[in-house]
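User: Hey, my collaborator sent me this sequence without any context and asked if I could get a structure. I don't really work with proteins. Can you help?
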Amino acid sequence: IFTLLGAKPDAQALPHLARWYTHIASLGDAVSSLKAAEVPAPAAAEEAAEEDEDVDLFGSDDEVDEEAEKVKAQRLAEYAAKKASKGPGPAAKTTITFDIKPWEAETDLVELEKMVKGIEMDGLVWAQAGKLVDIAFGIKKLQINAVIEDAKIASTEDITDVIEAFEDHVQSVDILAMQKI
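Assistant: No problem. I've predicted the 3D structure and written it out in structure-token form, which is a compact way to encode the shape of the chain:
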């Protein structure tokens, strides 16, 4: 390109090209020793394009490899048999910490804990003891843990709705923490 330009381009019209030309010209004789890049012949480019047309990158050919289909069906059958022989895996469980806030400071939280532990659902196990946590001004809240089986209890809202049904004692129920076991 340098040799094709012959002279420095107008710096006003093409400032970047003029700067490049000045830079290359500063190299002096080293520029003449550089070889021009080889350009492939047009016939070779056409042959390469024809070869590319034969390649189907997305696998949309309609040919079905029967051998591959047999191997695939055999592997699927082996996988199904292996999975059936293992039996059901361990039940997925979640540990939940409920944060139960009373209506007032005089609410008996020990009695409330007994009421909460009295809730029985299939797949629900309460922790041995709850914890009384200070909120402010002598008011405490009850924190209690439970373990649930995910397959048996559809939603934690089922449990919180039952706890909130103790309207005389419970102001609100929040989930403080959840952890898969």
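In plain terms: The helical segments are 2-5, 15-25, 42-54, 66-86, 109-117, 156-164. You can pass these tokens on to your collaborator as they are.
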